[in-house]
Structure formats: structure tokens, C-alpha cells
Amino acid sequence: MSIGTLATPLDAAAGPARAGGRSRIWRKFLRNPAALSGALILLIVIGAAIFAPYVAPHEPTRQSLIRRFTPPVWAAEGNATYPLGTDQVGRDILSRMIHGARVSLIVGIAAVLVSLIVGVTLGLLSGFLQGRVDTVIMTVVDVTLSFPQLLLALAFVAALGPSLVTIIIVLGLTGWERYTRVVRAEVLALREKDFVEAARAIGASPVRTLLRHLLPNTFSSIIVMSTLQVAQAILQEAALSFLGVGTGSAYPTWGQMIALGRDFVSVAWWLPTFPGLAILLTVLAINLVGDRLRDALDPRVI
Amino acid sequence: MFTVLVRRAVRLVVVLVGVSLVTFAILHVSGDPVSLMMPEAPEADRAALRLSMGFNDPIPVQFVRFVGNVARGNFGNSFFHREPALPLVLERMPTTLLLTVLAMVLSLGIAVPVGIVSAVRRNSTFDHTATLVVFLGTSMPVFWTGIMLILLFAVQLRWLPVSGWESWAALVLPAITLATFSTPLLLRIVRSSMLEVINLDYVRTARAKGVSEWFVICRHALTNAALPLVTVAGLQFGLLLGGAVITETVFAVPGVGRLIVGAIRQLDFPIVQAGVFLLALIVVVVNFAVDMLYIYLNPQIRVR
To answer: How many angstroms separate the CA of residue B283 from the nearest CA in chain A?
Structure first.
């Protein structure tokens, strides 16, 4: 049972025993209002990111000095053409936020893929081979855990030169150790089980045993962890952009919008506020979905 | 007990060598440290610098030299300040540690009582509200929280200063900002570790013999729930230092984080390396101390 459930007591009465595993998981997932609203927000953000050029009302980089510092539409001097107002050079905040969703989602998902490949491979090797390989890999994990992740990412992105690819790789290579630890622990726990013994007995090669019999058993924890890491990677990308080692391009990102808006916070509160809300809502939605997935995928909770 | 200590100490040294390797890699990962240090200099100057800094030697030789220098506290001179990098970082360390410790104390002060009540009154309105706040807290970017607090308390209400570190009032917003980042994570741990012990047999026995409910919770349940909390609080310390880097930048707090961020903009890599290494060193030492405390608190390991 996860710690942060918003679950209702209804969960206890899960579907009929005959229902297949997957549909049971879906039903458990969908019955939770928090997870459902999270999924909905996520769909909207993903839609905005994919169709950004079509749904954004203005060009995100188009400046208009006459229109600078237009407040949001509900304020006294608001203007319906710019629903969330304009920034210090008259660019439309809403349009920039819609385009910014692209960077956040790309970095979030791609960085997690990098972490997954590195972390899961090392975890499998560590747990399966044990011995010296295990010692070396776990020492590397300890070293990685010694650094504040953001600080390390900051230093390496700066050294390699800010770009989208650099950010993805650096965030991916500083966030893999969680998978290694969990996959290793699960492989260690499973390798003595009967089904692994049986696979070995019928002549399955070690590689086949590892990939076909051990790896699938770690999927549910991996899915949950990677969902939650997407949320963290989005926060970290925003922090890097905020600290000035972002994507290195003029394309808007949420973190960069907040960084630019900070200097004008006393004259135009909406500049840093809305992009921050976009981050908050997106990350919250992913966290809600991830937490609910954890409960739905946990075979111990039925 | 003794062998455990020795094994941990060996591990500590190995991890420190690994930490130096990563710190070393910051300057060398791009392939050419000289173009990183002086991007616009003519080739002749670069070659001279390369020679004087020993960048032409094989990488392993350079690394051994780097470790030797680090062991003597020498990270080279700051390009910008033109003086040794380490003292510049050390000078600002108390500020960062003060901020971090303040936030940690604040976090524990909120997370422990709220987490206990959440666990004891599981599924109550209080518990659900606390869970919701945890979700919100873990989803907010630290720097944005800081800016929103500035907007509310410094710009609108004018109760507290916008930035700086001169008065105690100036510490309030940075400490709260950093605490909003760490409190939710600690609260989760307090709640879940309390839930794990609260229904165990020995707690039920204590209740059965008529001990008052709060005594059961504080004396019997909490002491056992403390173990995971100590570990997580130690691990949190690294995260918190990372958060401090951002918080210092938002509030212009003159700490190590702000120094490093500034140094990164000026490509002042000795400062970056010294700062990153020292912060990692603190995390390693804190985790070592936590390990020791864990051994001390856990009778199962102590006896062995």
C-alpha cells in the first residue's frame, strides 16, 4: 500500500476475481478521482505540446512593445486577445506557455529513457552476476548519490555547453541509480525462486533467464518509478533553465519564463506566476497518476 | 561491530575517490579544458596554458595529480577572483549550512507531528488534507515557491525583505522556501513508518497493559519509526543542499550555491570544482554519520 494514497475505501471491493489482470488494474486506476483528474490534466498538456503551433493564439516569439505588460484578461486593463497577459517585450504569455510544454515533456520523457536504459541494465548485471561486478556498480551508485543531483547536472551542462540534448543526457545520467537499486534488489530476491530454477533446468541461457524471466517481474516498479521520475526531470529542467543553463535557444521554456519574469515581479506579478502554475499542474498530474499506478500495479493490494 | 566500522570506513575512502573522479570530470568532460577556460584566447596562449596546467599529460596522470592536490586542499586559483578557490568556497559555507539546517529543523518540526497525527488518524480529513499538501509540495518548483513568497510577503504585504542575508528577518523566506521542498518528503516517511509499526504486536501489548495512547505512540511506536526517518533525513541532506543552491540564487543569499552558479556563468571552473566537491563531501560525511547512528540505534546490527 502506498503512503500517499488518496484512495477511497471502495478500493477494497475490487472487481470480480474472474476479471483479467489488466482490466482489473485499469478499473482500480480509473475509480480514483484524483488519478482521473491527473490523467485529464496530463492529456491536455500533451495535446497542447503536440499541437502547439495550432492552439497557441500568437507566435511565441512575436514582440510588441506597445502591448508590453498587458495584465491578464480579468484585470482592469486586461485584453481578451492576451488571456494571460504579455511579458516585458509584449510576447503573449499563454502562447509561450503552450510552446514551453514541448520542452518540458520532451526533456522529461527522454531523460527518463536514458536513466532507464542505464539504470536497469546495471541493476540486472549487479543482481545477476553479483561478486565483483556488483561491488563496482554499487560503489558507482554510492558516488552518484553523494552529489546533490541538480548541482552535478548544473556543472556538467555548463561544461558541455547548454543544449536540449545535453540537458537530456545529463539529467538521464544523474538520475539512473534508483532503477539500479530496485532492479538489483528484485533480481536478488527472485533469482533463488523456483521459476528461475525451472528456467535454468530446461536449459534457458543466463541471458534468456535474465531478460525473459527476471526482467518482466520488475516492470511494475519500473513503470511507477519512471512515471515519478518524469515529474522530477521536468522540475529539474525548469531549475536548470531558471539558473541560466537551459536549452541555449530562444525557444520558450517554463523555467526560463519564470527566470525572466522574476525581475519584474513587483510590476507584473503574472510573468512568473502562470508558467509556475503550468509546472505545478503538470508535475502534480504526473505524481497523482504515478502514485495511483503504484497502488493499481501492486499485486499485494487487491 | 568493529568489522562493520572498518568496512564502512573503507567504503568512505572509495566513495571519496569516486567523488574526486566525478569532480575531475567536470573540467575534462568536454575534451578540451582550455577552450572551456578561455574560449576567445588565441591558440598560442592556449598552448601555453595547456603546458603550464599539465593538460598535455595522460588523463590518468592528471587525475592522480588532481587527487593529490585535492587532498592538500588545492583546487587551483579562481580565474575571476585570482586567489585560491577553496578559501572562497569555505568562506561562504557557514551561510549555506545555516540555511540548510534551519530548513531541516523547520521541516522536522512540521513533518514529525503532522506525520504522526496522519498515521494515527489514518483516512481522517486531517490525513487526506495532509496527503494533498504533500502532493502539492512535491510538485512545486523550489525557485517558483520562493518567488511567490517574495510576491506575497515582500512585495504585497511588505513584512519581510526581498533578498539579502543581513538580518534575521531576511532568513525567514529562504528557510521557509527550502522547507517547503523537504517537508513533504519527510512527512511521507514519518507517516508510512508510523503506519508500519503502529499495528505491530508489541504496540498492541503496550496498549493492552493500559498504557495511555500518547505514551504508546511516543515511547513505543515513534522510537521504532525513527530508524527509517534518520536514514531518510540523512539522504535528504543532499537533496536539501541542491535545493539550497536554487534558494540562494532566488534570494541573493551569499552562500556556496550562489557562488557556484555565478562561477558557472563566468566559466570559473576551479570554484565550481571546489564547491561541488565540498558539498559532496558534506553529503558523504553526513551519510557516514547517519550510518553510524543507524548502527547505534538498531540493536540487531549493534549486537552482531
So the answer is: 6
ipTM of the complex: 0.86
Selecting from B26, B238, B239 the residue whose C-beta is nearest the C-beta of A156 gives B26
Confidence at residue B199, expressed as pLDDT on a 0 to 100 scale:
75
Angular region, A197: left φ>0, alpha ψ -120 to 50, beta rest = alpha
What pLDDT is attached to residue A235?
A: 92
All three cell numbers of A78, joined, read: 486586461
Q: By mean pLDDT, which of A6-15, A238-247, A269-278, B112-121 is the weakest? A: A6-15
- Residues of chain B in contact with residue A156, where contact means CB-CB under 8 angstroms, are 26, 29
Do residue A148 and residue B239 have CB atoms under 8 angstroms apart?
yes
The yes-or-no verdict on residue B212 having pLDDT over 90 is no
pLDDT of residue A301: 46
- pLDDT above 70: residue B165: yes
Q: How far is B86 from chain A (nearest CA, A)?
A: 17
Cβ–Cβ gap A155/B264 under 8 Å: yes
Residue in B128, B246, B280 closest to A146 by CB? B280
Query: How many CA atoms are closer than 13 Å to the CA of A301, on its beta-carbon side?
Result: 19
Query: CA separation (Å) from B258 to A180, B163, B177?
Result: 32, 13, 16
Average pLDDT over residues A178-207: 86
Residue B77, SS3? strand
pTM of the predicted model as reported, rounded to 2 decimal places: 0.87
* Contact state of B151 with A265 under an 8 Å Cβ cutoff: yes
Number of Cβ within 10 Å of residue B293's Cβ equals 15
Q: Where are the alpha helices (DSSP H) in chain A?
A: 21-30, 33-50, 52-55, 93-129, 131-146, 149-160, 164-174, 177-190, 194-201, 206-208, 219-242, 254-262, 270-297
- Closest-CA residue to A96 (of A301, A220, A288, A260): A260
Report the SS3 class of residue A87.
Answer: coil
Read off the pLDDT band of A1 (50, 70, 90). Answer: very low
CA distance A42 to A232: 15
Q: Supply B107's cell numbers.
A: 521541516
The span from the CA of B245 to the CA of B260, in Å, is: 8
Positive/negative CA dihedral, A15, A21, A25, A30: negative
